[in-house]
Amino acid sequence: MAWRRTRCGRRAAEACRFGRMSQTSIERLRDYLGQLPPQSKALLMREFERAIERGEDLAVANFVLEELRKIVRGADDDNQPRTDDPARLAFRALEPFLIESSQTPRPGQIRRGSLASVWQWLVRDGIPEQAREFDTALAGLRGAGSSTEIHNLVRKLQVAAADAIAKITHPEPGVDRQRAMSRVGPPATVEDLPGIGAVLKNREALDVFNGKLTSHLRVFGDSQVSSMLAALNVPALQTPVLLPFALSLIMQHLSAPWQIIRLALKVAGSDDEIKVAATPFGVTVTMAIHDLAQVAADMRSEIKRGHFVNVSEHLKTIHDGVRGLRTELDLRNDSPWGKQLASIRVDISNSLKSEIESVPGRVRRLLRQRPDKDISVGSKLDQLEIDEAAALIDFVAICRTYASELAINEMTLRTYSDLQQYVEKSTEALVQALRGADARVRPFRQMQVQAAIRFCEVLFGRDYASLMSRAAESAMVVVERKPARAG
Fold first, then answer.
1. Is the pTM of this model over 0.85?
2. Rounded CA separation 400/395 (Å)
3. 77, 159, 319, 417: which could form a disulfide with 402 (CB 3.0–4.6 Å)?
4. Separation of alpha carbons 159 and 202, rounded Å
């Protein structure tokens, strides 16, 4: 992932390696994080939060995220639970389920932006007296209260908040529900309200369940599926509102989140989508498809910005997820789930098509043999353009690996074959041209050869690239000896 290649990621890994966190390493990491601008800190926090959601490098991600949060909120309360932000304390139980407000939530997710509106409603209308008591009690404990005392206060407030949310979402006969709900906030907040109330009400059940989860489930086989179903066999976790949140916790520990559907297959005792949908765990399929669509949207956004660092990871996730769903679940093409999967494949194909088809043209512009008269003294290739072309060639190679499942097979194979043929012929021709190049055009020809060799390494591997590199060196030796022979 991107953060692994950053200085922050390297220092975090050094601090966390084998569980031995030296004070020097931790201090260096804190110094580095403290010097980052606020925007960079926010970006890093989001990256590490996403890594935790995917269950990757949990030790490093959790450690750095905690250090970042300490720096952002100030170091004066590092050793004491926060008591200066009642809303943060009250809603801390929601953290594992929060997403950015720009995203569309699936079952088991809550928009982060909804929390401010809900808190304002609770303080103003929902539980004003309890909120004042909570704030007063926190002020009395500030700087001296124990974690247990603060926990008990928070839990009391959460229960009151959950009751208030239950009353407004399920009002008594005669109460105008729509009008009452509009006082809480915009439609998006109202949509999140039942989930917020369910998580706050059943915080203990979720905490106990989360404690039973393995830190990272690389394999979600029959034994793990049976174990999870047994752990989920708690009345509080079986409600239609809360079950998706418990399932979200499992997904955060899975190396392949789409495998969450295996719970539904086990309960249904069948792979038929109608039977699966009829069980409470049918929601797992909706959740898995939604997450794949979100990965596809993230990838499209990165491709539009010319960022290809995470494309390989995204493509693998989508490819494995789509194939897994189509293999393990008997989906009908005309069913809602079948149409959603087909839509993901079409979106991926459309997103990748223009980028894939543009690569040969960009490579030709760099390697095209121009006549000597068109090459002026000081002509150069743009190194940034070379880097981008190499990244795009690698991008096509990655797409080829996953092409069949993502409906881009023919296009990708054709483009990759064209690139191989063109780069191979062009590299040989450029090396040959280097032998007869005069001093004026030789530097430019050398740059073209170096670019071609770099492309060869991506397309054919290091051995072939090394062979062409030696051929280019031999050509330069011949060129350098020619003046001596003429003399």
1. no
2. 9
3. 319
4. 9
455 and 385 within one domain: yes
Angle at 190 between CA 300 and CA 54, to 5 degrees: 40
* Secondary structure (DSSP) of 297-340: HHHHHHHHTT--TTHHHHHHHHHHHHHHHHHHSB--TTSHHHHH
HEC sequence for 104-158: CCCCCCEECCHHHHHHHHHHHHHCHHHHHHHHHHHHHHCCCCCHHHHHHHHHHHH
Domain span at residue 190 reads 80-201
Residue 313 CA to residue 95 CA, distance in Å, equals 25
Say if residue 144 is in the same domain as residue 124: yes
Please return the burial class of 243, using the count of CB atoms within 10 Å of its CB with bins 0-12, 13-18 and 19+: buried
**Measured between alpha carbons, how far is 32 from 232 in angstroms, rounded to an integer?**
42
- The low-confidence residues of the chain, meaning pLDDT below 70, are 1-28, 37-40, 42, 46, 49-62, 72-84, 142-146, 478-487
pLDDT, residue 76, reads: 41
